[in-house]
Write a structure and sequence with these properties.
By secondary structure, the chain is α/β, with parallel strands linked by helices. Helices cover 37% and strands 14% of the residues. The chain is built from 16 helices and 15 strands. Strands 1-3-2-6-8-7-14-15-11-9-10 form an eleven-stranded mixed sheet. Strand 9, helix 10 and strand 10 form a beta-alpha-beta unit. The longest helix is centred in the last third of the chain and has 24 residues. The protein is globular, with a radius of gyration of 21 Å.
């Protein structure tokens, strides 16, 4: 296995294939070899489409030989979270109840990646129906963090984050319903973008108008995330939010790394009572690097709270509506934490849900006001490093010796606010804690200004590079 090849940036892979310095077959074979070697340790994939990927790679090389027009990701391997449809591959959703589901069509984001020449190598693990911030299920078992196999890679895009961190393909498609791209990105030391609502069409939402879930890129570098976003973005009839706007061109100064005058609002906490000192230290070091590039940092009021109780009503009542009808016949086949979440959601009334929707509107206006004063908002992505791989998502997370509530109230409290408001938010590595696990920095921007958010992230990446650091797995 060629370690340098499997950790090569997607943009470089595509360039080398285009220049005939690398074949798509060589790249895909290296990725498949890495999957075969490391999958027994981390369990990142639920389906590996090796034969189809090899056939697609051969066809990609033939197009190069023929002098045909090539897409911007021609020959590059990509994995897809097992909540996102890939034609002809099972979409099990981490659930015994969906183990035999095989979609006939690609989700829009997947179709666009394939049109750009990307090659799907498989589907990555997710907790059942993507319901929690860890990745394990009765169907697919436990997914583990490449940096420490006793820890989770986060959830619900944990298979995607583990795969990218371990070199099992440079690109992954994730989804983010309550932080499910950003939390895993922070936990595994990669880049994860939740785009503006509608920037990348989100396929299959039960209520497309009230949808809080997003499809987005997970990569090792900011440039790869930006490239992937450019391919996946654009209007689609399935997603009404995608029809009303488009990504705005980034500020040329920010693309050049000039952050002079950039105003950053910094929130050390968001409804979480505790944050690990190592997370704070890495966040402050990242902010100092941005200040050295010309940015101005202003702490936000300690009282900034994102209406966590209202968010809980919306989240748990949605799970209850989907899961409670299944309990009579299928309780034994459902993950216990999913059942518990549904039972918690049963208590909320229609009046509670209406009040929560109003609170979401107020939160949107408060974030808009903050982004009227600041160009971006910055916070830690998680309040501590990755939890144990077998952590019970219905239990309190303990930080600094203090029980702090379930994951959304504590560990991942920084993430869900921006699912509710729709603003773009990216998690990038901020450093490593004394336990050897990565930490993440979240950067939030104005609607449709995803590329400015990525430009700030790229400036930090240049100042504090992270992609060269790689996990050492037992089989390597």
């Amino acid at each position: 296995m060629d370690i340098e090849l499997v950790f090569m940036r997607a943009t470089e892979v595509a360039d080398r294939i285009r220049r005939r310095e690398l074949s798509a077959v060589e790249h895909v074979e290296a990725v498949l070899a890495a999957i075969e070697t490391w999958q027994p340790h981390i369990n990142a994939f639920v389906t590996v489409s090796a034969d189809a990927a090899r056939a697609a790679a051969r066809a990609a090389d033939q197009r190069v030989a023929d002098g045909s027009a090539l897409g911007s990701l021609h020959g590059v391997a990509v994995s897809v979270k097992d909540l996102v449809d890939v034609a002809g591959l099972p979409c099990k959703k981490g659930s015994r109840l969906h183990a035999d589901d095989v979609p006939r069509e690609d989700a829009p984001a997947v179709a666009r990646l394939r049109d750009a020449g990307a090659i799907v190598v498989g589907k990555t693990t997710t907790p059942e129906l993507g319901h929690k911030a860890l990745t394990d299920s009765l169907l697919d078992g436990v997914t583990r963090n490449p940096w420490d196999l006793a820890r989770t890679p986060g959830g619900s895009s944990g298979g995607a984050s583990a795969a990218v961190a371990a070199g099992l393909g440079p690109l992954a498609v994730g989804t983010d319903g309550a932080g499910s791209i950003r939390g895993p990105a922070a936990s595994a030391g990669i880049v994860g973008l939740k785009p503006t609502r509608g920037a990348v069409p989100h396929h299959g939402a039960g209520d497309p108008f009230g949808n809080q879930s997003f499809t987005g890129p997970m990569t090792r570098t900011v440039a790869d995330a930006a490239h992937m976003l450019a391919v996946m973005a654009g209007p689609h009839a399935d997603d009404p939010f995608s029809l009303g706007g488009r990504l705005e061109a980034p500020d040329p100064r920010r693309i050049a790394g000039d952050l002079a005058g950039l105003s950053i609002g910094y929130a050390e906490r968001m409804a979480n009572p505790e944050v690990d000192p190592a997370v704070v230290a890495n966040t402050e070091a990242s902010l100092s690097a941005l200040e050295a590039l010309g940015a101005r940092v202003e702490p936000l009021p300690d009282g900034f709270d994102w209406c966590e109780p209202a968010g809980r009503v919306l989240y748990q009542s949605g799970i209850a509506a989907r899961v409670l009808p299944l309990l009579a016949q299928s309780r034994a086949d459902l993950t216990p934490s999913l059942v518990r979440f549904a039972e918690w959601g049963e208590r909320w009334t229609a009046r509670d849900v209406a009040a929560a929707v109003a609170a979401r509107g107020d939160l949107y206006r408060r974030v808009q006001a903050l982004l009227g004063r600041h160009d971006v908002l910055v916070s830690p992505t998680t309040a501590c490093t990755a939890l144990a791989a077998d952590f019970d998502a219905t239990a309190d997370v303990v930080i600094n010796g203090r029980p702090c509530g379930i994951t959304r109230q504590s560990w991942t409290a920084y993430q869900y606010p921006f699912n509710l408001t729709g603003h773009p938010a990216v998690s990038v590595p901020s450093g490593f804690a004394p336990d050897g696990l990565p930490t993440g920095l979240q950067i939030v921007g104005r609607w449709w200004r995803d590329l400015d958010v990525l430009a700030v992230a790229a400036a930090l990446e240049r100042a504090r590079p992270w992609a060269a650091r790689r996990p050492r797995l037992p089989a390597t």
